[in-house]
Amino acid sequence: MEDKYILAEWMNNDLPKEELDQLKLDPDYSIYNSIREHAAELNTRDFDEDSLLNKIKLRKNDTGKVIQMAQNWFFRVVALILISLGVFMVYQENTNVVEFAKKGAKSTFLLPDQSEITLNSDSELKYKNRNWDNNRTLHLTGEAYFKVAKGKTFEVNTTLGKVTVLGTQFNVKARNKRFDVVCFEGRVQVNHNDTTIILTQGEKVSFENNDLIIQKKTNATIPSWLENELAFEQEQLKNIIEEIERQYNISIGYDPKSANQLFTGKIPTNNISVALEIIATTYQLQPIKISDLQYELIKMNEI
């Protein structure tokens, strides 16, 4: 420890002459002296107190900027989340729920209010799930049977007309230019163009090409297609063929000019041979099977 103090005094030129003479006798003196000479050549900056203080202030300001930037980043993330949530809610509110029954099949499902819907083959129903209890509005393409739970107005829109109810059971069919509505329970209001008709239990109405063609009573308690039958009344052959194609998911070739006679009757949906035989007998046609998915109806005199 004493040697360290001696060297320190020597470096500062404060070492007494007797001790300096003694130090020069040290074998390492030449090394000490060399270190001293090189150290003297080193330049150090003068200490600037004001400059140091300014640097400290600048660092403090920089820290504040970092904090501010972090805060801005946080608020931007929150804003982005809120905007995304808003967009999602608007999307949900304006997005339709779509139910579909493909050809050769039926589909039964419940609406948010527990109303039960059965779609006939090749039919589609759209509605908005959000706020359903206050906006019970649907859009139907094809045919469906409705068992409506009591509640606010229940509205079924089609391209051919509209049906409005509160709580009831009814069937709606809108295909081509024909619009059929049957009320099985309660009351329904049918709107077709400028015509409004109120149906009560056991009543039906049909429009075709914008004309009212049927308005009568019926003894049916449910749609016939729920019991594997298609019931037609004053129906064109074109519509009958298309309905059979939907029910069996097949293709039927025929000459549209083969008959202008309207058909009234029932056709099974679980036996294609019987179904085609009924049509063939009525219109004097001959059914020919080309494949499991393709048939033809030709005139008897063309065989």
Explain this structure.
This is DUF4974 domain-containing protein. It comes from Flavobacterium profundi. Residues 102-189 form the FecR protein domain. By secondary structure, the chain is α+β, with helices and mostly antiparallel strands. The protein folds into four domains: 2-41, no CATH class; 47-95; 97-225, Sandwich (Jelly Rolls), CATH 2.60.120.1440; 228-302, Phage tail protein beta-alpha-beta fold (3-Layer(bab) Sandwich), CATH 3.55.50. The chain is built from six helices and 18 strands. It has helices at 2-11, 17-24, 29-41, 49-94, 237-248, 272-283; strands at 97-101, 107-110, 116-119, 123-127, 136-147, 154-157, 162-165, 169-175, 178-185, 187-192, 195-200, 203-208, 211-217, 229-235, 251-254, 263-268, 285-291, 294-299. The strands form three sheets. Strands 1, 2, 3, 4, 5, 6, 7, 8, 9, 10, 11, 12 and 13 form a 13-stranded mixed β-sheet that branches. A hairpin with an 8-residue loop joins strand 4 and strand 5 (136-147). The longest helix has 46 residues, at 49-94. It is elongated, with a radius of gyration of 46 Å. The model has no long low-confidence stretch (mean pLDDT 85).
Quick structural summary:
The protein is of the alpha+beta class. The chain is built from six helices and 18 strands.
Q: Would you spell out the secondary-structure blueprint of this structure?
A:
Blueprint: H1 2-11, H2 17-24, H3 29-41, H4 49-94, E1 97-101, E2 107-110, E3 116-119, E4 123-127, E5 136-147, E6 154-157, E7 162-165, E8 169-175, E9 178-185, E10 187-192, E11 195-200, E12 203-208, E13 211-217, E14 229-235, H5 237-248, E15 251-254, E16 263-268, H6 272-283, E17 285-291, E18 294-299
Parallel strand pairs: 5-6, 15-18
Antiparallel strand pairs: 1-4, 2-3, 3-5, 4-5, 5-8, 6-7, 7-10, 8-9, 9-12, 10-11, 12-13, 14-16, 17-18
